[in-house]
């Protein structure tokens, strides 16, 4: 998990000559955190558990029989880092999962406690999806809900001078500014942005517009540079749709990575399109040393077509067979299955689990959450199955089955999770 969007903002600020400091409270590898809390050991590929603190549950969640925790570096560390910054002009805070907004508000509260006159700009996924909510609740002075191409306007408004370098090609021109870190366990990059599909549950096409990929020489130079600086062994591509136009994009990129032989492992954790995998692509992935391949499957049954038709059961079976035949193990290939999609039956999920078993691949079962402005959202709210003004808080995918009458109940979701993980029922009362 890396704040890649914020790192691009950092790049643009460095480009304009600003003095930039990064505080990443989720960087488990920050050596300074060790003075505040014992670091948790790494698991596989530079990943591991975040530091957590159990905090009191907000009253709106009192009906959920689960613990409520804050993840990330301790507050004392954050305050210490803030106090090390001399006369900051502005703070740029990012956000990811919309239902984590109380954490964003708390982050901004701490900044304003240390710098009462701080100018705080909030961006990221929550700010883009829920700008009105963020304006009301986050405590930020400015909620930035555009993409990076509009950053000039914001900077001119903030600092009263003109920033007029054309940023419309920011993705092509800039690398995410990893040099702002001291130490890292792995690197995350995007080689492409957007998607040409339009799945009913996904906001990617609306967030990014048309699908674009970056020049391969630039991608390779970026990877080489940061692998060298941080001496990391793991490089993650977080594209939403890496395999679109694979003959012009991902296959040539893979050939370059093979030739470059950087001595790292590569990962595709964001669900690639099973239908677009062919024998050559599978072979190139193996030769390049990819060790994590996740396939976007989501569900079996009629919803496959109703939600956009990106994949069928046969695509999963065929892709798995091709990947297995070039040497990928069952634990290196995993399919994402969503549970609790609108209109999904328990049998649909059971069939999807069975398909993965037949394919000889692992399963990652994730609970569905409705996202504003998606087709699902518009259908659910106009049919009265979801209040349009529901607090994003309550849309936490773990929380949803406890109250959402139009979806599966907690017992069903748990039964399916147990089935996916080969357990007997572990339902908590
Ligand atoms: S294919 Fe993936 S990225 Fe594209 S719209 Fe569907 S879920 Fe989103």
TrEMBL record:
Signal peptide: none annotated. Residues 1-165 form the B12-binding domain. Keywords: Iron, Iron-sulfur, Metal-binding, S-adenosyl-L-methionine. Its cofactor is [4Fe-4S] cluster. Residues 180-406 form the Radical SAM core domain. One of its GO terms (cellular component) is cytosol. Pfam families: Radical_SAM (PF04055). GO terms for molecular function: catalytic activity; cobalamin binding; iron-sulfur cluster binding; metal ion binding. InterPro entries: BchE-like, Cobalamin-bd, Elp3/MiaA/NifB-like_rSAM, rSAM, rSAM_horseshoe, rSAM_sf. The keyword Hydrolase does not apply. PANTHER family: ANAEROBIC MAGNESIUM-PROTOPORPHYRIN IX MONOMETHYL ESTER CYCLASE-RELATED, PUTATIVE-RELATED. This is Radical SAM protein. The lineage of its organism: Bacteria, Thermotogati, Thermotogota, Thermotogae, Thermotogales.
């Amino acid at each position: 998990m890396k704040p890649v969007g914020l790192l691009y903002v950092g790049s643009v600020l460095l480009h304009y000559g600003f003095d930039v400091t990064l505080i990443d409270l989720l960087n488990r590898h920050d050596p300074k955190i060790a003075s505040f809390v014992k670091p948790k050991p790494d698991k596989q590929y530079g990943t591991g558990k975040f530091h957590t603190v159990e905090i009191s549950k907000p009253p709106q969640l009192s009906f959920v029989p689960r613990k409520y925790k804050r993840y990330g570096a301790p507050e004392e560390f954050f305050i210490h880092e803030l106090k090390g910054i001399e006369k900051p002009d502005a703070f740029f805070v990012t956000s990811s999962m919309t239902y984590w907004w109380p954490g964003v508000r708390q982050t901004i509260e701490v900044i304003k406690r240390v710098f009462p006159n701080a100018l705080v700009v909030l961006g990221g996924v929550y700010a883009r999806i829920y700008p009105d909510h963020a304006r009301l609740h986050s405590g930020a002075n400015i909620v930035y809900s555009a993409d990076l191409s509009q950053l000039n306007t914001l900077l001119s408004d903030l600092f009263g001078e003109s920033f007029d370098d054309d940023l419309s090609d920011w993705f092509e021109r800039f690398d995410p500014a990893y040099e702002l870190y001291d130490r890292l366990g792995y690197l995350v990059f995007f080689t492409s942005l957007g998607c040409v599909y339009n799945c009913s549950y996904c906001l990617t096409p609306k967030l990014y517009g048309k699908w674009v990929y970056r020049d391969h020489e630039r991608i390779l130079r970026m990877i080489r540079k940061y692998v060298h600086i941080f001496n990391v062994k793991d490089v993650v591509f977080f594209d939403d749709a890496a395999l679109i136009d694979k003959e012009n994009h991902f296959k040539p990129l893979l050939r370059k990575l093979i030739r470059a032989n950087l001595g790292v492992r590569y990962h595709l954790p964001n669900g690639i399109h099973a239908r677009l995998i062919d024998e050559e692509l599978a072979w190139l992935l193996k030769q390049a040393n990819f060790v994590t391949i996740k396939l976007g499957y989501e569900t079996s049954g009629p919803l496959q077509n109703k939600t956009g038709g990106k994949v069928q059961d046969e695509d999963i079976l065929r892709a798995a067979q091709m990947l297995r035949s070039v040497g990928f193990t069952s634990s290196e290939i995993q399919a994402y299955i969503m549970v609790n999609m609108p209109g999904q039956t328990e049998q649909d999920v059971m069939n999807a689990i069975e398909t993965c078993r037949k394919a000889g691949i692992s399963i990652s079962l994730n609970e569905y959450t409705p996202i504003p402005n998606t087709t699902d959202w518009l259908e659910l709210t106009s049919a009265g199955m979801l209040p349009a003004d529901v607090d994003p808080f309550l849309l936490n995918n773990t929380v949803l089955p406890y109250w959402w009458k139009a979806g599966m109940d907690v017992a069903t979701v748990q039964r399916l999770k147990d089935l996916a993980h080969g357990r007997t029922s572990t339902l908590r009362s």
